[in-house]
Amino acid sequence: MEYIEELKAALGDKVLTEDFERFIFGADWSPRTQKEIMPPDVVICPRSTEDVVETVKIAYKYGIPVTAGGGLTGMAGGAVPIHGGIYIDGACMNKIVEVDVENQTIRTQSGATLQELVDAGKSHGLWFPILPESKWSCTIASAIACDNDSTFGMKYGKPLNQVLSIEMVTGRGEVIEAGHRKARFSASGYKLKDLIIGSEGTLGVITGATVKLEPVPEHRHVDMIIFDSMSKAVDYLDNLLRMGLVPEGAHINCKRRLKFYTHAYKEKHGHDPKIPDWAGSLLAIIFAGDKDVVDFSLKKAYAMADEMGGQLIQEREIIDNWWISKHTLDFPAFKQKWPASQKVKKFGAADPGIPMGRLEEYYDIFIETAEKYELDILGMNAYLEHPGSIGFSLSCALFVNYRDQDEVDRFRKYFEEMSKRAVDLEGTMSTYMSDTDLKVPYFEYEHGAGAQYMLEIKRIFDPKCIMNPGKKFTREKVLEKEE
Amino acid sequence: MSIEEHRDDIETCFGTSCNFCERNCPVYKILRIKTYTSKGKNRAMLGLIDGHYDASMALAEVAFTCTLCGACDAHCALPNTERFIELRRKLVKEGLIRPEYDLAIESIKRTGDVFGRSIETSKIFEETADGEVPVYLGCQYKGNKNEVKLIIKVLDKMGIKAKITDDESCCGYIAHVLGYEDEMPEIVSKFKEAYPHDDFITLCPSCTMFTQEEMDLNSTHVVKRVHELIMSGKVKLKNLDMDATYHDPCDLGRKLGVIEEPREILEAMGVRVHEMENNKEFSMCCGAGGGMLITDPELVEDMSKQRMKQAIDTGVDVLVTVCPTCESTLLTGSMLARKEYKKRVKVMSLWELLDEALE
Ligand SMILES: Cc1cc2nc3c(=O)[nH]c(=O)nc-3n(C[C@H](O)[C@H](O)[C@H](O)COP(=O)(O)OP(=O)(O)OC[C@H]3O[C@@H](n4cnc5c(N)ncnc54)[C@H](O)[C@@H]3O)c2cc1C
Ligand code: SF4
Ligand code: SF4
Question: Which of A243, A292, A453, B318 lies 20 to 30 Å (CA to CA) from residue B27?
Answer without folding.
Answer: B318
